[in-house]
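User: For a reading group we're discussing how well predicted structures match intuition. Take Isoquinoline 1-oxidoreductase subunit alpha. Before you show the prediction, I'll give you the sequence so everyone sees exactly what went in.
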Amino acid sequence: MTRFTVNGQPVHYRMDPETPLLWALRDASNLTGTKYGCGAGLCGACTVHLDGAAVRSCQVPIGSIEGSFVTTIEALSRDRSHPVQQAWVAESVPQCGYCQSGIIMAVAAMLEKNPNPSDADIDAEITNICRCGTYPRIRRAIRHAARVAAGGETIAAAPPPGIDPEDAARAIPALTPPKPAGKE
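Assistant: Thanks. Here is the predicted 3D structure of Isoquinoline 1-oxidoreductase subunit alpha, as structure tokens, for the group to look at:
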């Protein structure tokens, strides 16, 4: 049995202690914003915060984090108002979007400890892989988020459309396709 806190809620996983945190989050907690990318800790699609630090959740056995605090993309800001999330929208960063939650989590952790990163700092800290190659937009969004977090700028962008975070884990009823005209 493993106990720690996920997104402010105490959890108790009855899983093998060697289970990667990624799979506990996705399979047992239905927190699917954390993505499986490579399973080797190289791509960063599975990045979450563990006690405030960005970690590759595919490489963290749940038995090693007893008593820790985990934050996933779902709880970075429930209303999507975090400066990094807002900058991502304002700078139109995502293309396919698969890697974005991991990159956003890595950037948010970096900006907490270094609110004004240089290009070298960004290169050293943000090693996530974006297969679509949106790196120039990512760098612009990081700079934009840093300015917003410092209070030097605001973002007029509204939260992105989509599923309300409160509804994210609820099942969506199956849709019945419409019948062709003239067929009853």
